[in-house]
Amino acid sequence: MTNPVSTRYSSHPEDFKKYSTKEIREKFLLGDIFQPNQLSGVYSLEDRLIVGGIHPVDQPVALAAIEQNKAKFFLERREIGIINVGSPTQISADGTTYELGHKEALYIGKGVKEVIFYPSKSGDTYLYFNSAPAHKSCPTKKITTAEAEVVTLGSLENSNHRTIYKLLVNSVVETCQLQMGMTELKPGSVWNTMPSHTHDRRMEAYFYFDLSENNAVAHFMGRPDETRVVWMKNHQAIISPPWSIHSGAGTSNYTFIWGMAGENMDYGDMDAVKPTELK
User: Fold this and answer.
1) How far apart are CA 261 and CA 239, in angstroms?
2) 5 occurs within a structural domain
3) Each residue of 221-258: pLDDT tens digit?
4) What are phi and psi of 151, to 5 degrees?
5) Which of 234, 239, 222 is nearest to 85 (CA)?
6) For a Cys staple, 247 with which of 114, 135, 160, 196, CB 3.0–4.6 Å?
7) Does the predicted model carry a pTM greater than 0.90?
8) Spacing of C-alpha 140 from chain mean position
9) Is 8 a member of any domain?
């Protein structure tokens, strides 16, 4: 089988200024991460995060080693976080089976050799994942939205009333460097991560879902004084380098998953940018 994971190289912010719309989409957007009966995605040289999807339809999918890792098995030197954005399903990790419901997360640590993703009974299994290098083994753990650290922010008046579910953060589960969570926009609200921010200590990836076929999200990226927009659809992800803001506004409410890797595990470590300072 051909390698299902492609490589995306790091980009300098000065070079980013010169990119066309097509080049930005080619370098940062992940458009088709759910392929039938396969794991697929991108190996980003931004903190070496792997971003992708797993879509078992009528047969199980194994977490196999990829060419970029030069490893005996996928998690030999890595950790992985998985969030179910489809129907309830099962995942086994070294013989232990976990039932994973819609919008529930599973963290699997370094050293787990055999991970298998099973199709749901409805055949509507969509598993979004982020994987980062790991220096030690942390216990495998399932996290529900009830177990997450939950914060509600914003207001309908500012079109950003939202609930943040911190699923894979150090106050909820032990990880090496990976952090993941989910933000749900309330009906009538469309803005996420506004005021926006950057953080040189870590990169980030966004994945948008719960978006109907006729709606889209305008995702803003780039340095605060040199921003660009990428129009995104349901089940698409985008890579955000440390020097880039990451904010979005949809034509309807939606949900998105954020994932981070880097040297700092402090969720609040952000360099805030006021809306009036953006250009």
Assistant:
1) 11
2) no
3) 999 999 999 999 999 999 999 999 999 999 999 999 99
4) -135, 135
5) 234
6) 196
7) yes
8) 19
9) no
Q: How far apart are CA 155 and CA 166, in angstroms?
A: 19
**Of 51, 36, 68, the residue nearest 204 (C-alpha):** 51
In CATH, what number is assigned to the domain containing residue 33? 2.60.120.10
Residues belonging to the binding site are 197, 199, 204, 246
For 70-94, the pLDDT digits (tens) are: 999 999 999 999 999 999 999 999 9
Q: Is the peptide bond before 195 cis (omega within 30 degrees of 0)?
A: yes
Range of the domain at 185: 13-277
Numbered residues of the known binding site for Zn(2+)? 197, 199, 204, 246
Positive or negative: CA dihedral 209, 211, 216, 220: negative
Total count of domains within the chain: 1
In this structure, what token pair is assigned to residue 16? 């980013």
What whole-number distance in Å separates Cα of residue 160 and Cα of residue 189? 5
Burial of 37 (0-12, 13-18, 19+ CB in 10 A): middle
